[in-house]
UniProtKB/TrEMBL annotation:
Protein's recorded name: AB hydrolase-1 domain-containing protein
Keyword Signal belongs to the record: yes
Signal peptide: 1-25
Record-level GO BP terms: antibiotic biosynthetic process; monocarboxylic acid biosynthetic process
AB hydrolase-1 domain ranges (all copies): 203-306
Family: Belongs to the AB hydrolase superfamily. FUS2 hydrolase family.
Amino acid sequence: MKPSIFPHVLLAVFTTTGTICGVSAAGYNKTDSTPTFQLSTDSSFNFQYLTALASALTGGSDIGPVLGAAKNIKDGDMNSFSEYFKKLAFDTKAEAENPENSYDPINVRDTWFSTSQYFRQADFYLHGNWSNPLIHSLWSEQTAAFDNALKSLPVPGKRIRIPAKEGNFTIEAIFYGASNRKDEKLPTLVIGNGYDAAQEDSYHDFVVPALARGWNCITYEGPGQPTVRREQNLGFIPNWEHVVTPVIDYLVSEKSNLIDTDRLVLLGNSFGGLLAARAAAFESRLAATILIDGVWDTYAGFSQQLSPELIGIFEAGNYSQFDQSIMSLRSAGKLPTNAAWGIDQGLWSFNTHSPSKFLNDSKKFRLIDVVDNIKNPVFIGDAQFETFFQGQPRKVKQSLGDRATLHSFRGVAGYHCQTGAGQELTRAIFAWLNETLRNRDY
Ligand SMILES: *[C@@H]1O[C@H](CO)[C@@H](O)[C@H](O)[C@H]1NC(C)=O
Ligand SMILES: *[C@@H]1O[C@H](CO)[C@@H](O)[C@H](O)[C@H]1NC(C)=O
Ligand SMILES: *[C@@H]1O[C@H](CO)[C@@H](O)[C@H](O)[C@H]1NC(C)=O
Ligand SMILES: *[C@@H]1O[C@H](CO)[C@@H](O)[C@H](O)[C@H]1NC(C)=O
Ligand SMILES: *[C@@H]1O[C@H](CO)[C@@H](O)[C@H](O)[C@H]1NC(C)=O
Ligand SMILES: *[C@@H]1O[C@H](CO)[C@@H](O)[C@H](O)[C@H]1NC(C)=O
């Protein structure tokens, strides 16, 4: 079998039709599939460096250290990546702990936010071996570093644990107030990630731009996501409303003096675009939903990454052969990093050692069953160089019809989740929210 799973084919899937309501095209060049300078010959590493750099925009890293990592880490070597970021994280932590650093809350939060980011990067490629103690120890470090930073924000962020009502799990959340006043009801963004990112990443991607515009935020994690996966040993569940509804209940009951209940907006990032849309179908209290980007059918996206021979074995129901083929490709170390990481992270976050069980479970994550129940206005991002869910944002748009706005992100803003173009992404989101909520018939 050729190691051809996850061929790194980048499809440019857009046309300019009347269904597109917004287009961003700074730096747009439709013939170029790698629109930015490549920081690694390994496309997965390039993307990770871009995520780390992007976070500098909102105080989550410094540019020199990330470019230093890109220079020194061996391309495609996951251990080298982890080791380098681990050292960078501990070095930055030592700076954060230097007593001379603590005279100023801005120093404190810059160093601790960066420390936390570098620990998350050090963890990113480790999930192939569940026994690796670093999966837990580096995460404790990232959490502790992040909490030190949270405390030094002008309005300190607060960790909250919300018990689920359906299912035996606890939602991990952080509430960020946009105002110190105790009686100002502000619009509020509810933010969730997908397959791999942490709620700590959401602070840099969405919370900072939202707070700056006078929005409160709550970020959350459910089963399958970093802290819940580790502390409660739970993989992804398809009925994501069991995660989001308790978060909305919490806001409405515990934060009623701070939130404008007519302007509660749900945002889902990456695979969270599917999870948020699913939850929105069960939640009537939302004024709008934002999908970064749109995801229609998880199994369709994942199975397109596999070679026809492999998917044939799976679909014929020969699960033992399928598992053996995938795991031997993985352990032979011949897969491109994207594919190796995709398998490691998928098995870990769905909490199974069986690729066929993972793929089978992914079939339950689809919108077709619930899309008609989504009643609020929806913003759907569509990235030109999307790797997993090419073409799916357009399907979500077609199914939602007038309820949705499809926004095409092209060129240098065209990576998965608009990584590296945080300004363009959040400008588009908040401009749409301003327009949509203004026109809303209360
Ligand atoms: C667009 O990208 C292609 C492929 O990299 C390159 O050959 C071409 O010069 C670029 N065009 C512009 C106008 O930058
Ligand atoms: C996984 O990690 C454990 C603990 O570090 C180690 O003992 C074991 O050899 C590793 N397994 C593989 C397959 O690398
Ligand atoms: C709920 O989960 C906790 C922690 O994972 C476990 O100790 C407990 O037995 C579970 N309770 C039920 C009713 O399953
Ligand atoms: C599964 O595949 C293996 C290897 O190709 C083959 O030997 C076996 O007969 C197949 N099993 C079934 C039930 O098709
Ligand atoms: C796939 O899912 C179906 C329905 O949920 C189940 O009956 C079947 O046993 C699953 N197969 C595997 C390999 O997990
Ligand atoms: C839209 O933006 C204007 C100008 O900043 C602001 O006054 C208004 O409150 C915003 N409306 C909504 C619904 O966010």
